[in-house]
């Protein structure tokens, strides 16, 4: 089963896609936040995805960061289109992506892949 991973930001949104067997995550694109719902919907339909993983941004005290208010509204819009939404903790995923590859235009897509891979690893380990 394929899934979409999202690193949500108030200006841009990183996207990742899993392999068809749901074991590996790959960066896809970085898009403007203003067109994210439509873009994700089109990508999900094209790839036959019904479940979406969104990074859950929290601070060191496990409190929601300010961006989470917007991310939860975004998630509700996707849910209203029929998608199942999962939140996955994404502590410093953008920093991890930058550390691995250096800073570039696709960093948010790589962060989305890190979030999605974390979810896939947890999900697949529960099945064992």
Indicate the topology.
Layout: E1 3-7, E2 12-18, E3 25-32, H1 36-47, E4 51-56, H2 67-80, E5 84-89, H3 93-101, H4 107-127
Parallel strand pairs: 1-4, 4-5
Antiparallel strand pairs: 1-2, 2-3
Helix pairs in contact: 3-4
Q: What's the domain count? A: 1
Biggest sheet overview: 5 strands, mixed
Helix count, per DSSP?
Answer: 4
CATH class: Alpha Beta
Strand residue content? 25-35%
Name given to the CATH architecture:
2-Layer Sandwich
The topology string of helices and strands comes to: EEEHEHEHH
Return the average pLDDT rounded to an integer. Answer: 88
Using DSSP, what is the number of strands? 5
Radius of gyration based on Cα positions: 13 Å
For this entry, what is the oligomeric state of its chains?
Answer: single chain
What is the general shape? globular
In CATH, the homologous superfamily goes by the name: YqgF/RNase H-like domain
Arrangement of strands in the largest sheet: 3-2-1-4-5
pLDDT below 50 for ≥5 consecutive residues: which ranges?
A: none
- The rounded distance between the terminal residues' Cα atoms is 16 Å
Helix proportion: 40-55%
Please name the CATH topology.
Nucleotidyltransferase, domain 5
Structural class: alpha/beta
């Amino acid at each position: 089963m394929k899934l979409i991973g999202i690193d949500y930001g108030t200006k841009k949104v990183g996207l990742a896609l899993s392999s068809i067997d749901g074991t590996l995550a790959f960066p896809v694109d970085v898009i403007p936040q203003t067109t994210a719902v439509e873009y994700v919907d089109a990508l999900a339909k094209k790839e036959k995805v019904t479940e979406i993983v969104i990074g859950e941004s929290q601070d060191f005290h496990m409190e929601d960061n300010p961006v989470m208010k917007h991310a939860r509204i975004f998630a509700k819009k996707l849910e209203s289109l029929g998608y199942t939404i999962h939140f996955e903790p994404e502590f410093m995923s953008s920093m991890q992506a930058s550390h691995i590859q250096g800073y570039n235009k696709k960093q948010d897509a790589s962060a989305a892949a890190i979030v999605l891979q974390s979810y896939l690893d947890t999900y697949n380990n529960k099945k064992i």
